[in-house]
Amino acid sequence: MGIVKINDQLHEDIRKASSVMVRSINAQAEYWIKVGMLAEANPSMTFSDIMREQMKQADVDVRKVVSA
Question: For the chain, what is the radius of gyration of the CA atoms?
Fold first, then answer.
């Protein structure tokens, strides 16, 4: 594990988002970093495409979760 320096405003935005998304501050930052990396690596994909692919790779059938 390392230390990443970010400005105070970004830290505050992460803190606020983490409370809405029910994640820790670190988990929210990791999520944004991962999604950002995936978006840069796949510029033709939308956010929804990226999430669909990640769910598929994790073997999550969203239709089953939603209908449960």
Answer: 14
